[in-house]
Amino acid sequence: xxxxxxxxxxxxxxxxxxxxxxxxxxxxxxxxxxxxxxxxxxxxxxxxxxxxxxxxxxxxxxxxxxxxxxxxxxxxxxxxxxxxxxxxxxxxxxxxxxxxxxxxxxxxxxxxxxxxxxxxxxxxxxxxxxxxxxxxxxxxxxxxxxxxxxxxxxxxxxxxxxxxxxxxxxxxxxxxxxxxxxxxxxxxxxxxxxxxxxxxxxxxxxxxxxxxxxxxxxxxxxxxxxxxxxxxxxxxxxxxxxxxxxxxxxxxxxxxxxxxxxxxxxxxxxxxxxxxxxxxxxxxxxxxxxxxxxxxxxxxxxxxxxxxxxxxxxxxxxxxxxxxxxxxxxxxxxxxxxxxxxxxxxxxxxxxxxxxxxxxxxxxxxxxxxxxxxxxxxxxxxxxxxxxxxxxxxxxx
Length: 397
Hints:
Layout lengths: L1 H4 L6 H21 L1 H7 L3 H23 L3 H6 L1 H18 L1 E3 L2 E7 L4 E4 H19 L7 H20 L3 H17 L4 H24 L9 H12 L6 H6 L1 H13 L23 H34 L3 H25 L18 H17 L6 H14 L1
Antiparallel strand pairs: 1-2, 2-3
């Protein structure tokens, strides 16, 4: 066993947490898919096998990327961003429709789908981190410093906004936070946010003025979700029906109590349309309880802490910004899932990293960890660990 562990470089705590979550996801996916079987048919083993394929792809990607020298990640940042932009453009015109949203690219012959925004998010974080280093001395200049940073952010935001407001909003806010970490003056950040909100307001106004143009085809869905969240205090029959998903999620958390109903014994998961993804946290609490949920939150916080630790220890600014951005992104995604399930946020499409049923989100979360581990393995303190690992391998041989 020790011999196999020597192949995993970087931060051991991140490895342990990530691999434990991915292994645990096999149990929860098998348990949480009854509603999917009702809707689409099949058996739990069908979805478990499909998820296992994504887990294997995710681990393979994570392992391969973490062995790559960190300097190459910096060098391919711009190329990765343009690939992400191309995928978003392709999705805009030729995306597969799932649940009324054209966010997916269908992979021929494999019957698998890939959400292009998952790749674009990571590519943008890495590319903006690179630009922040390059423009470090020009951050007081709108034309030569701020504008080159904002163009890729706004392009990604605009292409995702049409079908996925929650992801687009999250990307914009994460980008603003990354710019703040990158020492962009706060006066310029406030100006950027003001311009951004004004621009979004103009787009909404254009959509309302020209509804036949379908500038924002899912606008009514977004407004219904917000209205449903605001009207939760209204106990009319219409209100209860409109908020059925959110109410079932909160009820599942209540029923779960401290120690949960037990693996496979949850009942409300059969009435939550996305129990294995968007409402993962609610189903998790129903079966495993609030005590386990607290441990889950702690694990995500530890992941963020270890990534911040890597960011502070590295002497490379690009690696520091990218590690911070990835850590905050993963925690934000998990937090949104929890806040939706507890009724704090309106219903959105953000699932739990490493735990929700597999797909592009799982694979790209693994790729994100691979990037961070590529940075971690080259930290000054890890040089002795690497030499120890080689000596251990020689002893075993």
